[in-house]
Structure formats: structure tokens, C-alpha cells
Amino acid sequence: MTALRTPLKTALALGSAKHGVHHFLVQRITAVALLLLGLWFVWLVLRLPGLDYAGAHALLAEPCNALLMALFVIAVFWHAQLGLQVVIEDYVHSHGWQLVLQVAIRLLCILGAAAGVLAVLRIALGR
Amino acid sequence: MSANARPLSPHIQIYRWQVQMVTSILHRATGIALAAGTLLLLAMLLALAAGPEAWSGLAAFARSWIGLLLLVGWSWALSYHLLNGVRHLLQDVGWGFAIAQFVRNGFLVSIGSVVLTALLWLCAWLKWGGA
To answer: Does domain B20-128 bear CATH number 3.30.420.40?
Structure first.
């Protein structure tokens, strides 16, 4: 069969969306990160009921926990944005709503990640 | 994008329910629920950063029946999305695609998510006694 595509197109491997497999890869990389961070997060949350405010604050202020929590927040909102993007692409068929929701989801996820990281910084760097 | 009346392929209501489609739908549903559940994560971090009053308010909410209901739902959604996510990652590297395996690990993940949730709450209950 004769190939109708130019060799350049194959070399770039970007497909019709021009993004290649970037979305697919980042969704999986954040998934692997969340698998590891999620197990740590569950361990952390299970310790919280036995602690008062000072204890919980001190637990999260530990450098290792603060670092992992900041990474967890970033990975959560990144992964959520990628997942919600696909859900909206699949089920929202109006061009206008598609644009509004995709932009809104991105901005909300950036807002959430920034708020979470700022809170972790305040906890970790003391008051 | 023309909206003329072309024949469409049969949609979801025509098919018999089976574990393959249920696990797929639940993965999306729990993903959306967990995205909404990030509000709980943010509430926790912001309350901890804000001070003791905000923290005790959040702790009281977490111990109320609606708070516990949200936490149980959230922990199950997390358990399910985590286990089925691992299943998806294994499928991405080409494992578990034969129909028998696919059905079996679908049931494994579904039952496993309930077991994992129960284990988490058993841990919490054994450690802290009635939350």
C-alpha cells in the first residue's frame, strides 16, 4: 500500500491534534506520582484524628511531609485537569460551552493548586 | 459537524450491563467525584494554615454525620480510582487484555475497592475508637 502521508508527518508523530501523545503521557506520569503520593497521603490523614491543632501543624510542617504535600497538591490538580478535559471533550457538544468549561477547569485547577501550595508554604515556613 | 439525521450507532441503553462497562463508568464517575473532593483537601490545608479556630471547626465538621458520609464516600472513590488506575496502567503496558482476565480483574478491582475502604476505616476505628 502506498503511503499517502509525507515522511515529515511520520517523523513528527504529532497526529491530527498536533499534540502527539503529550496528554496521554502526562496523565500517566501524574497517575504514577499520585499512586505513590496517595499512599503516603492516606498514611498522613490516618494520623490526624489523634492530633490537636499544634500536633497536626507540626506534622505537616516537617520538611519531608511539606514537600510531599506540595507535590501531591500539584499532581492532584494536574491529573484532575487532564481527566476533566477528556470528560468535557466527550460529553459537551456545544462549541461555546466547550470553550467556557475547558478554560474554567484550567483556571480553577491552577487556583486550587496555587492555594494548596501557598497553604503548605505557610504551614512549613512557620508563623 | 452537520446535524443531519444520519443513523447513529447504538448507545449505552441498548447493551446488557456488564462489569467491563461498569468499571469504566465508575472510573470516570469517581474521577469527577475526586476532583470535587479536592475541596476537602484544600479545606484541610487552608484550615491548618489559618489557625486553631478554623482547624477545630473543620474537625467538628469531619466528625458530624454529613462529614463522615463525605469522608467515607471520598475514601471509597479514592480506593476505587487508585486500584482501577493501577489496572489501567497495567493495561497500558499490555497486561490483562484477554476477555477472561479483563472481567476477572474488573471484579477484583470493584470488590478490592470496598475491602480497601473497609480496611481504612477499620484502621481509623481501631486506632481512634469511633472516629
So the answer is: no
